[in-house]
Design goal:
- By secondary structure, the protein is of the alpha/beta class.
- Helices cover about 30% and strands about 20% of the residues.
- It is built from 7 helices and 10 strands.
- An 8-stranded parallel barrel has the order 1-2-3-4-5-6-7-8, surrounded by 5 helices. Strands 9-10 form a two-stranded antiparallel ribbon.
- It is globular and about 40 Å long.
Length: about 210
Amino acid sequence: MRTRVKICGITRVEDALAAAAAGADAIGLVFDPHSPRCVRLEQAEAIARALPPFVTVVGLVVNAAPALIEEVVSRVPLDLLQFHGTETPEQCRRYHRTYLKAIAMKPDVDLIAMQARYPDAAGLVLDTYSPAAAGGTGQAFDWARVPRDLKKPVILAGGLTPANVAAAIAAVHPYAVDVSSGVELSKGIKDTKKISAFIEAVRSAA
């Protein structure tokens, strides 16, 4: 099975179209006001509606108020929600949308237990733990910590770049890889050449 690619932290239509043209399977829109990659609803609508068919649009939230999430899902044509904070299973499922649950790779995290805790999650996004930010840190974690017997699809995130993504895939064999800062010119502004190089590296790893 080929490894899917999500380009996260998209803030511009042109970057979303570049990701799609390079072969990305999904793009991520961040609705966390603490993130430098946060998009306004108007931005998100424009980006999502500009994409061609068969590119999945993921909306990322971090411990967001229900009112914000409800407004996002009512206005932006999302395919998936990604809960990137400490949301409970009940909080994740209340919107009746397919969702991914991000797991911060703290030293004591038990991924088998997390998988059981979120039984209706479509997949687990494994990201580097940082007390300062929920994601987009540019730092990788020890990929050897990911157990091979997880049943749910693993979306590997955290510090991935065109230079290391092949090694990450060899170590983890994830369903998908998720990159943000590793393909940027600056926070929220993507580099078309880096996107293409990242996706080519993923394909070569197969």
